[in-house]
Structures are given as C-alpha cells and as structure tokens.
Amino acid sequence: MTYENLDSKLVNALLDDGRASLRSLAEELDVSVTTVSNHLSDLEEEGAIEGYTPKVNYDTLGYDVTAILHLKVEGSALEDVTERLREERQMISVYEVTGDYDVVAIGKFADTDGMNDQIKSLLSDPNILASNTSVVLNAPVENRQFELDVSDED
C-alpha cells in the first residue's frame, strides 16, 4: 500500500468514526498500530487533520435558524470585518469571495429575533456597505465531509 493511499484510507476511517482507537484503525487498515500512529502524527503535523470534534446537530440543540449573509465591505476593511465575523460565536463559516459581495457568512441562531439582532449589530459597522441575508428553509445537506479517493492498487 502506498503512503498516500494509506493516508487516504486512514482519513476515511476517521471520517467514519473519529473516536476510533489506534488499534481498531490498525485492524481495519491491516497495518501495525505503530504505522497508524506515525501516519496520524504526520497528518496532524501537516495540518491535514486539524482536530477531533463531535458532529453537532444545532437544530436539535435549539439553533434551528440558519442565515446566510452576503456583505459588501469597504476594501481596506475586509480583514477587520472578517475577523469580527470570525469572533462571533454563532458564525459557523466565514468566506472571502468573488462576485457582487466580498464576504459570505453563515450563522446559526435560536430564533429570528436573535438573528435579527446580530445582523443589525453587524450592519452598524460603517465598513459594511451593503448586505443581503437569506434564511435557510431546508438543508438537505449540511457540513458534509467527503471521503478521499483511494487507489485500487495496494
């Protein structure tokens, strides 16, 4: 099995069960525990694996309003605005983008009043020149992670 192929299989196994033990990963991949440990350490050091976190269903926890904010930002203030959004605890994704808007941010809220308050607070920033907010009605796919391609040759 190639180094890259083993890494891909290891990542896929962790996507299936991020709490899997080194021993169970080694058994699944048919390699030694030491090999799994070394490859996992390498993937962490390279930044390919950034941590191990639970998959949280925010809807179940009462955060069932998802808003997508498109913001047009004063050019020189882009970094300040994205940093502010990054620090907002309910913003789960912040992107600098091309197109009509400069930033797309996705937030989770307990209700529309909370969403409205946060949006109004953001729009008080004079560096935000325009905005467009969409409320998600249904999320057929959300926060999906995909398995890596694995070569058939071993």
How does this model look, in words?
This protein has helices spanning 3-16, 22-29, 33-46, 78-87, 112-123; strands at residues 65-73, 91-96, 103-109, 128-135. It has a four-stranded antiparallel sheet, with helices on one face. It is of the alpha+beta class and 154 residues long. A hairpin with a 6-residue loop joins strand 2 (91-96) and strand 3. It starts with a helix and ends in a 19-residue tail after the last strand. The mean pLDDT is 93. Helices cover 38% and strands 19% of the residues. Helix 1 (3-16) crosses helix 3 (33-46) and helix 2 crosses helix 3. It is elongated.
Count, helices: 5
Give me the count of strands: 4
Output the helix-strand order.
Answer: HHHEHEEHE
Report strand order across the widest sheet.
Answer: 2-3-1-4
Largest sheet composition: 4 strands, antiparallel
Based on helices, strands and strand pairing, what is the structural class? Answer: alpha+beta
Query: Oligomeric state of the chains?
Result: single chain
* Mean pLDDT across all amino acids: 93
Portion in helices = 25-40%
Detail the poorly predicted runs. Answer: none
- CA distance, first residue to last residue: 4 Å
Radius of gyration: 20 Å
Shape estimate? elongated
- Percent in strands: 15-25%
